[in-house]
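testing teh design pipeline on a random one, pls ignore if ur not involved
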């Protein structure tokens, strides 16, 4: 059951709607927490940035590390989590943080981080939402562009698929099925900031106990545990004493991951998405495909009188990803 603690968060006030002005933070803030895979203490400092500059990660623990723009072209790995990086240095598990940024409309930010992954916190996006909301958001002068889906498109990988079609709202209709331990779950989520905070942000990541044990024997998920994931035993029972935050918490988390991955488009994508069993790898292949394929998306910039087709005008890593501008 959903506890009152989480229901109350629907009351968090956020400024503005999806497609109006760009935002950044009102002030510089710091957060610390354990990394899921390294189990090391990670410090992140978030600094406001001006309009049209994007979200940039900078590793501060590695001399010479280059700044990395949070965009699909800089995704360097999608196994277990979404990792962005250039030149050998990377930041992993960015998806929950990016979901919180994207869904609150924060598209301009400097992220200084002294380790290879973001803090896992409670395994959901809720602590990020609270951190950003408490720090306060600053609305910038520039309008926030967005992508409008213009044509249906589907990408499949085995039994996984993502189908998109035009819609006046962003809707994510997600189905998962893990026979034996998570029965079929389906949820259709209509995006608004308040819906995101109330229905999706607090859904935690989940895994099988046997997977945790296997990963830890390989030196991964060393910080993983019952305080930052829903852990499910082989017979399908939930090991966390407090139980689930929602009966369908798992599919809600998959929607959270999808929204976080789509944030790497650097602008909201308005359309209806029907998603079957997808994960970070297919999400990122899908995003790269729809951004490059002509005619699927149209970039709408409210600051301009006429919309234009997909543009390379969004913030880019200078000289790093020429293919991205095609
Ligand atoms: Zn996740």
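output:
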């Amino acid at each position: 059951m959903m506890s009152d603690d989480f229901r109350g968060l629907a009351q968090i006030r956020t400024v503005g709607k999806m497609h109006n002005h760009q935002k950044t933070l009102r002030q510089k803030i710091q957060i610390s927490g354990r990394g899921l895979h390294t189990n090391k203490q990670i410090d992140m400092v978030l600094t406001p940035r001006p309009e049209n500059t994007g979200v940039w990660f900078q590793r501060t623990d590695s001399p010479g590390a280059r700044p990395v723009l949070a965009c699909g072209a800089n995704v360097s790995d999608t196994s277990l989590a979404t990792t962005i990086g250039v030149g050998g240095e990377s930041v992993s598990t960015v998806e929950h943080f990016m979901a919180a940024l994207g869904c609150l409309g924060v598209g301009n930010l400097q992220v200084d981080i002294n380790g290879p992954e973001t803090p896992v916190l409670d395994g959901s996006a809720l602590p990020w939402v609270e951190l950003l909301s408490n720090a306060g958001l600053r609305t910038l002068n520039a309008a926030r562009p967005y992508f409008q889906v213009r044509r249906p498109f589907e990408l499949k990988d085995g039994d996984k698929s993502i189908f998109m079609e035009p819609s006046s709202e962003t809707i994510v209709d997600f189905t998962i099925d893990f026979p034996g331990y998570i029965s079929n779950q389906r949820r259709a989520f209509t995006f608004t900031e308040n819906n995101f905070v109330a229905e999706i942000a607090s859904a935690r990541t989940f895994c099988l106990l046997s997977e945790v044990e296997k990963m830890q024997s390989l030196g991964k998920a060393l910080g993983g545990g019952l305080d930052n994931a829903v852990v499910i035993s082989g017979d399908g029972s939930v090991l966390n004493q407090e139980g689930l935050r929602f009966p369908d918490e798992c599919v809600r988390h998959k929607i959270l991951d999808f929204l976080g991955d789509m944030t790497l488009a650097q602008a909201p994508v308005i359309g209806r998405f029907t998603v079957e069993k997808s994960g970070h790898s297919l999400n990122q292949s899908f995003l790269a495909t729809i951004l490059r394929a002509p005619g699927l998306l149209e970039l709408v910039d409210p600051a301009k009188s006429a919309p234009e087709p997909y543009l390379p005008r969004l913030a880019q890593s200078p000289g790093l990803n020429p293919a991205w501008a095609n």
